[in-house]
Design brief:
single chain; about 110 residues; mainly alpha; 2 domains; two-stranded antiparallel sheet; 3 helices; 2 strands; about 45% helix
Length: about 110
């Protein structure tokens, strides 16, 4: 008798070692390699980092913060651009305020 057998309807061949395994298997029990593709993370194709929204956040940090909060669940990359722009705008505003206060203190 030979060890070769036909695969059943619920079986498939491992793409690495060609062993017969169950179709539902994610990892081959013989070679240990992944046979099922890793789950693909679905993302919104319209969600791209946005320079324009980041610039708006820089110019008006409060608007950038509001956009970050509103867009965070639907467009996380765009929201991140808004948040980074708002943070940079806030820091630059504080630095300029300190420079102006320091310069006025000299008079």
């Amino acid at each position: 008798m030979s060890d070769i057998r036909e695969k059943a309807a619920d079986e498939m061949y491992c793409s690495h070692c060609r062993a017969i395994i169950k179709k539902a298997a994610e990892i081959c029990p013989k070679c240990g390699c992944r046979v099922a593709p890793a789950p693909v993370q679905t993302s919104n194709p319209d969600d791209m980092p946005s320079f324009g929204l980041g610039f708006i956040g820089f110019l008006v940090p409060l608007a950038g913060l509001i956009l970050f909060i509103v867009l965070n669940k639907i467009y996380p990359r765009k929201a991140r651009s808004c948040g980074i722009g708002a943070l940079i705008g806030f820091i630059v505003g504080i630095v300029f305020s300190l420079i102006i206060i320091n310069a006025m203190g000299d008079y």
